[in-house]
């Protein structure tokens, strides 16, 4: 199956270009920037085999004049309709003009910047050089995260780690430190992707706690 994952170098596209959907002027993946991601957990996800249904819809659109923000909500339910999780994903599409504001409030929330002082707590977790190659097996085959030529075309020095992979590493650190590895204590995480994480660097997360 690996020869059909993406259309770069010696790799064939799947589905083939002739069978791909032609979206006309709809932006391609190269023009979509993942800005924010939120995960809310209402019930524990079964560790054994279980069936869950995902329902997604666009809940907010906000034009900026130079582009537009889109917020997508995904609800995860079991076969009985019980809600287990809610995901909010915000993407920015540069160059998409003529878009007015629709739906809920602006999808990009105001960032609360902590006061200038040393953090109360710091932790870091070093990733492996193969981290992006392992994560892409989950279905995100964007060549930005593995092809140096593509990465440089986007203005990066080298391939960067997937944003959601970085989020998962940060969530793991928070889960271990603040939740004492008790699943029911981890109920929500929200992140904003502002800086790239290069594969040979440490992926760290810093939390400021005000009491």
Highlighted features:
8 strands; Thiol Ester Dehydrase, Chain A; 211 residues; disordered C terminus; 3 helices
Word description of this protein:
The strands form two sheets. This protein has a six-stranded antiparallel beta sheet with strand order 5-2-3-4-1-7, with helices on one face. Helices cover 13% and strands 30% of the residues. It has 211 residues and is an alpha+beta fold. Among the domains are: 68 residues, Roll (Thiol Ester Dehydrase, Chain A); 72 residues, Roll (Thiol Ester Dehydrase, Chain A), CATH 3.10.129.10. Pfam families: MaoC_dehydratas. This is Peroxisomal hydratasedehydrogenaseepimerase putative. GO terms for molecular function: (3S)-3-hydroxyacyl-CoA dehydrogenase (NAD+) activity; 17-beta-hydroxysteroid dehydrogenase (NAD+) activity; enoyl-CoA hydratase activity. It comes from Albugo laibachii Nc14.
């Amino acid at each position: 199956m690996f020869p059909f994952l993406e259309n770069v170098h010696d790799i064939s596209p799947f589905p083939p270009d002739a069978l791909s959907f032609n979206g006309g002027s709809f932006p391609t993946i190269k023009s979509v920037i993942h800005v924010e991601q939120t995960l809310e957990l209402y019930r524990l996800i079964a560790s054994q085999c279980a069936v869950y249904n995902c329902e997604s819809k666009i809940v907010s659109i906000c034009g900026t004049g130079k582009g537009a923000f889109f917020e997508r909500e995904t609800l995860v339910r079991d076969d009985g309709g019980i809600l287990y999780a809610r995901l909010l994903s915000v993407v920015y599409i540069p160059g998409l003009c003529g878009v007015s504001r629709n739906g809920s409030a602006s999808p990009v929330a105001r960032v609360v910047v902590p006061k200038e002082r040393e953090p109360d707590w710091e932790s870091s977790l070093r990733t492996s050089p193969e981290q992006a190659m392992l994560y892409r097996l989950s279905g995100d085959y964007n060549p930005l995260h593995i092809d140096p030529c593509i990465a440089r075309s986007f203005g990066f020095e080298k391939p960067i780690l997937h944003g959601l992979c970085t989020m998962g590493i940060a969530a793991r650190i928070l889960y271990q430190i603040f939740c004492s590895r008790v699943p029911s204590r981890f109920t929500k995480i929200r992140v904003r992707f502002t800086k790239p994480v290069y594969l040979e660097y440490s992926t760290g997360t810093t939390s400021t706690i005000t009491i």
